[in-house]
UniProtKB/TrEMBL annotation:
<keyword id="KW-1133">Transmembrane helix</keyword>
<dbReference type="Pfam" id="PF10361">
    <property type="entry name" value="DUF2434"/>
</dbReference>
<feature type="transmembrane region" description="Helical">
    <location>
        <begin position="146"/>
        <end position="166"/>
    </location>
</feature>
<feature type="transmembrane region" description="Helical">
    <location>
        <begin position="178"/>
        <end position="200"/>
    </location>
</feature>
<feature type="transmembrane region" description="Helical">
    <location>
        <begin position="105"/>
        <end position="125"/>
    </location>
</feature>
<feature type="region of interest" description="Disordered">
    <location>
        <begin position="492"/>
        <end position="518"/>
    </location>
</feature>
<keyword id="KW-0472">Membrane</keyword>
<dbReference type="InterPro" id="IPR018830">
    <property type="entry name" value="DUF2434"/>
</dbReference>
<feature type="transmembrane region" description="Helical">
    <location>
        <begin position="317"/>
        <end position="335"/>
    </location>
</feature>
<feature type="transmembrane region" description="Helical">
    <location>
        <begin position="355"/>
        <end position="373"/>
    </location>
</feature>
<protein>
    <submittedName>
        <fullName>Uncharacterized protein</fullName>
    </submittedName>
</protein>
<feature type="transmembrane region" description="Helical">
    <location>
        <begin position="277"/>
        <end position="296"/>
    </location>
</feature>
<keyword id="KW-0812">Transmembrane</keyword>
<feature type="transmembrane region" description="Helical">
    <location>
        <begin position="230"/>
        <end position="248"/>
    </location>
</feature>
């Protein structure tokens, strides 16, 4: 601890020339004992002393609440202090004064890259978030969208932080922009880890889905594999949220207190070296360790041909995951190092831009770029699953010797009465189609089949009554057809008799067609369906 304190003071001594020295200077006397002159403007000394205003050699007039510039370039905009303590006009110490520097220019370039990545992230979200197959409870569509949601959050944080770098360069004294860019960078750490985690987790889920689609019984629901996949996300997000609560909820005013070397030593360095930042980086590393564990688990269960040997497992890791996992580790390492070395901390006013962008923002940009390239290159999973199903169907047809070119088109299966390959299935479909069909008068007339009145070969024993009945034979009605077909399906149903062998109560009605045979005894109507 003592050695570390010495190194911190050495860093302050080396960089003290980069800070504006802030010392009290006496008021310039005016026309009388209660009048003082500040930057050519007269002020009441009693009012200044009453509200604890003091003049500093860095060109500021301030107390514990307000700070105004007193440099010659703002002599026309000096504050007016009334006896009641109210102040009008004046240029704040925290207003933009200097031109944009190297840090701000690089920040604008990175902010533009973050903004462009938002557009491509939305394209990938739309591409991979679309549904072409009805989702199941086991494979929700939200699972493949989470990595893009986290990517959008990372781009938003990075863009806000990098745009804030412009005002970090331009402000006369450090103010809110340096706090904003530090907060959003620390906020992007768990979001970046979550983006990498969701991409790795979903890759394993996609491998499982392909195997499950080919064979639904390939895995059990409550085995050791499913339990691991249930608890690993909980452990990861536990560490990620702990990192958030260690870093974000705090008093950030210490990062703003870098006006001079004394403020930096007494306020900024204790804020940077807070043990919560160090613990937060350790928790982020614990969350990072869950990512390769889950990747190893997915290869073990869903790449069985590669899980036998260690080299085979390493070859099965997608190269994009090797890069994104390594880059996320760089971010965690920089967060831990900046908690011990204030000179490279992102919130330092005089920190080197190489550390800030090379170790802070560049890994995030590269992770987003790799995800976008991978998302644009890979197809939608539903479409890929449909392609695999078609490929398996072709392989099955080829194995069975079925010529796919001779197969009926898809619309053929929707034609009436084509609901099966055997006669029983067709009869059942026909019975279900015709049940409840109402006979019309026209259909009843068509069911009467007229025979020729003159017969060449009549039996000598045929009576005139039977001859008349023979000329008009009643065909089985549609209802009779249903019963006949039902009889084919159920052997216990007796066949229905038709024609001249029916009982008088079962004789059909001929409707309007009976006018041609009015001499025949009128038939009984069995039901209103025959009318």
């Amino acid at each position: 601890m003592f050695v570390h304190t010495i190194r911190t003071r050495d860093w302050i001594e080396k960089n003290v020339h980069t800070y504006i020295k802030r010392d009290l200077i006496p008021f310039e006397p005016g026309e009388n004992s209660t009048d003082v002159i500040i930057n050519g403007k007269h002020y009441n000394l009693t009012t200044l002393q009453q509200y604890d205003f003091a003049v500093y050699n860095n060109g500021t007039l301030s107390n514990s609440s307000y700070c105004y510039l007193t440099i010659p370039s703002v002599s026309q905009n000096m504050p007016i202090i009334f006896p009641n303590g109210s102040i009008v006009n004046g240029a704040s110490c925290y207003s933009p004064f200097y031109p944009i520097g190297q840090r701000g220019i690089i920040g604008l370039a990175f902010a533009a890259m973050f903004a462009i990545s938002i557009l491509f992230t939305l394209v990938c979200l739309r591409k991979h978030g679309q549904l072409f197959i009805q989702q199941t409870k086991r494979f929700r569509v939200i699972g493949r969208r989470w990595q893009w949601y986290w990517a959008l959050f990372v781009t938003a944080c990075g863009m806000i932080a990098c745009f804030s770098e412009v005002d970090v360069d331009r402000d006369y004294l450090p103010s809110a922009p340096i706090i904003i860019q530090t907060i959003f960078w620390y906020l992007s750490i768990p979001a970046t880890l979550a983006c990498v985690w969701e991409s790795v987790r979903h890759w394993g889920s996609w491998q499982e889905r392909q195997l499950y689609d080919a064979d639904p019984f390939v895995y059990r629901n409550h085995d050791r594999r499913s339990k691991i996949e249930f608890y690993l996300p909980l452990v990861f997000y536990l560490f990620a949220w702990l990192n958030f609560f260690m870093n974000i909820p705090r008093n950030w005013l210490g990062f703003q207190a870098q006006a001079d070397s004394s403020q930096t030593l007494n306020n900024f360095i204790p804020a940077v070296e807070d043990s919560r930042f160090k613990a937060g980086a350790v928790l982020a590393f614990c969350a990072w360790c869950i990512i390769p564990i889950h990747l190893w688990h997915s290869i073990h269960y869903y790449k069985p041909e590669a899980s036998q040997k260690t080299f085979g497992r390493l070859r099965s890791i997608p190269p994009v995951f090797v890069l994104t996992i390594s880059l996320s580790l760089v971010i965690i390492g920089y967060a831990e190092a900046s908690a011990w070395v204030p000179g490279i901390n992102l919130g330092g006013l005089k920190a080197n831009s190489g550390y800030i962008y090379g170790l802070g923002f560049a890994p995030e940009i590269l992770i987003l770029l790799l995800h976008i390239i991978n998302g644009l290159r890979n197809p939608n999973e539903d479409l890929e699953l449909l392609r695999q199903r078609a490929s398996r169907s072709e392989a099955t047809d080829e194995m069975l010797g079925i010529d796919r070119r001779a197969r009926k088109p898809r619309w053929w299966t929707h034609v009436a009465n084509e609901f099966g390959f055997d006669n029983d299935a067709k009869l059942r479909a026909l019975a279900n189609t015709n049940i409840g069909h109402r006979r019309t008068e026209e259909e009843a007339g068509r069911d009467v089949r007229m025979h020729e009145l003159a017969r060449q070969h009549l039996d000598d024993e045929v009576t005139p009554e039977s001859d008349i009945e023979e000329h008009f034979v009643d065909r089985p009605t549609r209802r009779d057809n249903v019963h006949v077909q039902s009889g084919l399906l159920d052997i216990t149903t007796p066949p229905i008799r038709s024609g001249i062998h029916r009982e008088p109560s079962e004789a059909p009605s001929f409707g309007s067609a009976t006018t041609a045979v009015s001499q025949v005894q009128q038939q009984q109507i069995r039901s209103m369906l025959d009318v």
